[in-house]
Design goal:
Structural class: alpha+beta
Largest sheet: 7 strands, antiparallel
Radius of gyration: 24 Å
Shape: globular
Number of strands: 20
Number of helices: 10
Order of helices and strands: HEEEEEHEEEEHEEEEEEHEEEEHEHHHHH
Mean pLDDT: 85
Length: 452
Amino acid sequence: MHDAVLHPVDVVLSDAGVRARMMYVACDGAFDSQWHFRVAVDRNAAMEPGDGGVPERGEDALRLAYFVAQKPRRIEVDVYGVHLPYEVDAADWLDVFIESAELKVLSYVRRRWQSGVTADAVVSWIEDGAHRMGRLAAVKFGYRLMLVWAYCGAADYGAAAQDMAVTIETLRMVEEEPAGMVEAIRWAAQTSPVVWKMPIPESWQVDSRPGNQKATTFTAVLRLPEAPDKQVGMMNGAVLNAETFASEEDAFVGAADGIAAIGLDCTKATFVAEPESPPGFISSWLLRFDEHDGAIEVRARLMRHARCWVLLVVVSPGRRAFVAAWMQCGRALDVATLLMEITEPLEASDWSQIAALEEAGRLEVFEATVIELSRREGGAAEVMLAALYERRGIRLHQGGNIDQARKAWDRGAEWMEKYAELASPEEADARELEVSRYRQRTARRLGNTGQD
């Protein structure tokens, strides 16, 4: 639930624009530079010391800085740090914080970032008989979770909302590492029915079994150091060849049968199409339900690739049953599926040739080379090119080169349209849907930059 007036997001201001109305403050007093950061606050704000020291691994949030401006209205800003012991999403951590603080959520936004899912909420509460409102945002930089809490009297919130948004969006760590992981990675990997590998956080124990040309399966279990004999999470994955299911509906039935095979009943739940599929995948769907009055939660992602289907099911305690394991399991599902790699059956030298041509910007030769190699392997050149252009666009977009990212994604969409044109009458609707989803994904990424 997002109220755009109450809750401005993606505030686009130049550095000069920020300085014209606010001031940047460097918070570099901590003895560990990993916890140094910069943020923009009200020009009239005074900074007071935080709690001292730096956050300890696995301990409660520590206040790193406090700002207060008295005029023209009283606005306060707290910045907290948390040293995460395991890989979790900042959004899940914030949800638990809001619940424990008994705050009322008025507006809420979740966004996928390089380090996982972040969250930003407008909240209200009563303090000493006075009605208060504010913004809470949590974002993760490797093992460092940062919480920004800007707040004021409820009557002043409307006038302060824009500045609070700027404060939240200008928070930057001196040593950023936005895409870093809290934990090292283990890999579930096999060469059938396609060459694939899937990253799993190190706290999981992975058992990957050799498969065949039809399917490969693997399992993983989560055990925590404080209870090594207790299993607090379970993961079941399958990579199936592209001919396994003839349609999305067949895939949903097959996935439900697979989930039932591990003793779970998902007949009352529905796979929901995701607006943005993991890079390289055509489509993806998410399933989520609980059992035993919330004691167990099941999350699953079904993904369609040009050369295979992938199903990953993660079973965890419910949020109220064991919140730490619940957070870890949710993040593990995303890490595994969003960063999964499926390699085309080309030689390493072929990939080196493709990468060199792409890096040099020789895109006509690049396309001809991909087409030649793809035909040699019997694959769909159009889909492979679309996937490569999508990944190229993501890299350019992350590097701030928005115009070039747009061109890469547009070219990828052209190849997807060529793929749709080659469809048989039976495949036409499905391929048109794939083209539409490709365009929606890239348009959404461009929309997140504030560009048309």
